[in-house]
Each structure stands twice: as structure tokens, then as C-alpha cells.
Amino acid sequence: MLGQLNLPRLVNRLSVLNKVDMKITSKSFPDKGMIPEKFTQEGEDLSPEIEISGVPVGTKSLVLICMDPDAPDPEAPQRTFIHWVIYNLPASALVLEEGADVPSLFPSSAYGLNDRDKLGYIGPKPPIGTHRYYFKAYAIDIRLTFATPPTAKDVLSAIDGRVIAMAEYMGKYKLKGN
């Protein structure tokens, strides 16, 4: 997906009325901390361990999207680059182990397309500067169906107005010698 990602409105009346403490955490790196090389394209390009907890009642499925809003240059960002899209995750607390094949772990779930037009995770490899990588979890009140693998924009459009709760976790990365 090329160009600017125009994100739809992601909060609805349920979000305002149903305050919950949904959380996303990781043992792979601290929130707002540096992402270790093994989770990047300079390393093993493994997806990090992600834990989602505090999933609210009424959730039918979870969505997880990893995005870099600093592409290509954090001093002059031009687009949001999508690194990972997973939808129809179980509507309960869960752990995605590092490097996990998510659809094998949770057969009802599926990958969407990252911005390399591939299914699955693609780690950080910022061309310049230190970039931020947001891992966003959405608790939604539906299960999603797509005829072909969706982009993040497709998923975000489909969940517009269906979000019960959202949580985010952020890591940073800068290429060696950059």
C-alpha cells in the first residue's frame, strides 16, 4: 500500500460508555523503549512477544496492527508504514510468542497484508533516524470476513464504529550506523 494512510475514526459510543483497562504488553522490549535487533530486518526479523489482557465483555474478536508513522523520515514523515496486520484473534486475553505463526496458533485468525504486500510480520528497517513502532490492539464487536487478504486500511475501515476498546504499545528502532 503506497501513499498516506488515512485512518478512519476508531472510537465509537461503546468506547466512551465502556471504559476498560485493556492492555498490550511485551516481554521483548519495554513500552517506549528500543526494539532489540532480533525483531528487525537487521536481525532475525522475528515478531516480538505480544500479550493482550483486560479484553472487555462483548468482544467478538481482536485486531492487532503494527505501524510506523515516521516513514520515511521522522523529521518529515510522509506516510504510515504497516508492518503487521492480524485479525479475528480470539476475544480473550492471549499471548503471541515471539516468532509465532499466529494463524497456526489461533486457527480462526488471519494475517492481513503489510506494506510489502506480504502476509505476516516485517520488522523495522528505518531508512533514516529513530522511528516509532506502534502495536495497536482493538477489541471489536464483530468477526471480520474478507474475500482476499486485507490491507490495514481495509481492516480499519471494517472496524470503524465497532471498537469496544483499544490499547497500544510503542517501541523505537534506529539502524546501526544511521
In a nutshell, what does this entry contain?
The protein is mainly beta.
Describe this protein's structure:
The protein has 178 residues and is mainly beta. It is 10% helix and 32% strand. It contains 3 helices and 9 strands. The chain has helices spanning 13-17, 102-105, 152-159, and strands spanning 23-25, 33-34, 50-53, 61-71, 79-89, 94-96, 110-111, 131-140, 163-173. The strands form 2 sheets. It has a 6-stranded mixed beta sheet, with helices on one face. The protein is globular and about 45 Å long. Mean pLDDT is 90; it is low at 8-17.
Strand content: 25-35%
Mean pLDDT: 90
Largest sheet: 6 strands, mixed
Strand pairing plus helix content: what structural class?
mainly beta
Order of helices and strands: HEEEEEEHEEHE
Termini separation comes to 25 Å
Write out the strand line-up for the largest beta sheet, numbering strands in chain order: 2-9-8-4-5-7
Number of strands: 9
Query: Count of DSSP helices?
Result: 3
- Helical proportion, percent range: under 10%
Question: What is Rg?
Answer: 15 Å
In quaternary terms, these chains amount to: single chain
Envelope shape: globular
Give the uncertain stretches in residue-range form. Answer: 8-17
